[in-house]
Amino acid sequence: MEELEVKNIVAEAEGNQILNGCSLKVKSGDCLALLGPNGHGKSTLLNVLMGDPRYVVKSGSILLDKTDITKLTPDLRSQKGLFMAFQNPPDVPGVVTMDFFRASINAHQKQPISLLNFYKSTTTAYKEVGLDSDMASRHLNEGYSGGEKKRNEILQMLLLKPSIALLDEIDSGLDVDALTQIAGIINELKKQGTTFIIVSHYDRLYDLINPNRTAVIVNGKIALEGDSSLAKRISKEGYSFLEREYGIDIKKNEKKPVSIGACAAKQVAIK
Amino acid sequence: MNKIVKNPTLKEKAEIIIKEDSSLGYFLHDEKILPAGKINLHLILEKGTKLTLTLVDYLNASLDFEVQADLKEGSVLYLNLASLCFKDNMKIFRFDVNHNEGSTYSRTKMNGVNLSNGTLKFLGSSFIKNGAHKSDTRQEGRITNLSLAAKSEVSPALLIKDNDVKASHGAALGAYNPTELYYLMSRGLSLEESKKLITYGSLLPIIESLKDENLVTEAKEVLGGLKI
After folding, report:
1. What angle in degrees, to the nearest 10, is found between the helix axes of B191-208 and B213-224?
2. Which chain A positions have a beta carbon within 8 Å of B197's beta carbon?
3. Which CATH class is domain A3-269?
4. How much is the ipTM here?
5. Tens of pLDDT, residues A53-106
6. CB contact under 8 A, B171 and A270
7. Based on C-alpha coordinates, what's the Rg of chain B?
8. Secondary-structure percent of chain B, ordered helix, strand, coil, rounded to 5
């Protein structure tokens, strides 16, 4: 990948407009810290970049190396080198992790991976993220702790070797040692040329990976960009200086809570 | 007693008394085994016994299958069902588990796929009776509809008449969980591949509990050939 460009994206979910003309340019090898107050569009932007069908892009475009990928489905975006580590990876009962990993790897290459190479790469990846490789025989994310889920996301990033990785609060749920380990992996991939957009609320991760750029999303659009010092300042002072010094009006987030049902019953939409 | 049978002889009424730890697996794959009327299987678990009953139903026919289980003190029951509903068939499964005495334990798991314009119903209840304290039960059902014309119902009920018990139920009905689909697709799998993985995933754990390599392979092959 050479360049990812978000041009004036307006996106909504369930009738609520969340991104209001968001624009951002990321170059190959960038490590961008994406910050912003709660509910202002950080996760939405990552999900829109990955192609989450629950978000409707009303206008604007996403260009990957000048090719418009706005209408591509998530699988095709993944095959073009995009990867997203989810903030809350879902449990997928019944789907065996190793079957899923194998199918995912095969979706990214012309020839199916051999059993030996699959075994080698998964064993190495499990070791790198500090998980027991026996977990490969379990159902995907089912019964995993919060920290295990996050490590499992990084593990998939290692297996799929994306050119651009979107990490959505990958540090939440990780203890200090795990965070250091994950930061080490990110730093190693940075050296190999992987581009990162990283959402986090804590400076600890940013201290460990030292992003070269910072972008702040406010009211659904990128309000301010800068180098790593901007992330450090926000960590120290919060967002109030944006209003004071830049005249950026931070609107209160008045989103309504969403119900997922009751009494352990779950109704899902018919597609 | 461990018994795994393909196409067992089904009777309209049958009673099985469990006197020792047992595992029964039935793979229903030939419509000829069906009796004319409703099937009623009565299970009686004697004190301290354990039974795992697994039903894998691939019958291309309408079916009304009722299982009634009576649990005596300290007995343990696992009831597993994997069902495919083809064409316009009507399939009704009702699994009622009666916790008649204390320290009894049951887990009922019913997973199915409704492929066309048929009707698939997973009904049943866990009844913890007076005196059955320290009992523990769970009923859960999940049906995936592959067609807008599919009519499905999942209704796991709990009837509790004693204190100091554990009881829970869960139901999932509909097409596919969009979050699961998005997650799988974000890793490069197409929509069809993702749906297949999820569909097989809901049935495979139950099919594999048949623990007969040939039957499991046969059951997997049928699943692999389904159009999703």
Report:
1. 160
2. 92, 95, 99-100, 103
3. alpha beta
4. 0.92
5. 999 999 999 999 999 999 999 999 999 999 999 999 999 988 899 999 999 999
6. no
7. 18
8. 20, 50, 35
Q: Are A126 and A160 in contact (CB under 8 A)?
A: no
Predicted confidence band at A254 (pLDDT cuts at 50, 70, 90)? low
Length of chain B: 228
A173, with CB counted inside 10 A (0-12, 13-18, 19+), is middle
Collect all residues from A whose CB is shorter than 8 A from any CB in B.
50-54, 73-75, 77-79, 83-84, 86, 89-90, 92-96, 99-100, 103-104, 107-108, 139, 156, 160, 263-271
Q: Does B78 touch chain A (CB under 8 A)?
A: no
Asked whether B149 and B160 are in contact (CB, 8 A), the reply is no
Which residue did the predictor score with more confidence, A256 or A271?
A256
Please state the pTM of the whole predicted model: 0.81
Q: Is B157 on the interface with A (CB under 8 A)?
A: no
A17-21, B109-113, B143-147, B173-177, range with the lowest pLDDT: B173-177
What's the rounded Cα separation, in Å, for the pair B214 and A211?
55
Indicate the domain borders of chain A: 3-269
Query: In whole angstroms, what is the distance from residue A105 CA to residue A166 CA?
Result: 18
Nearest to B174 among A90, A92, A268 (CB): A268
- Antiparallel, parallel or unpaired: β A56-64 and A67-68: antiparallel
Calculate the average pLDDT of chain A: 91
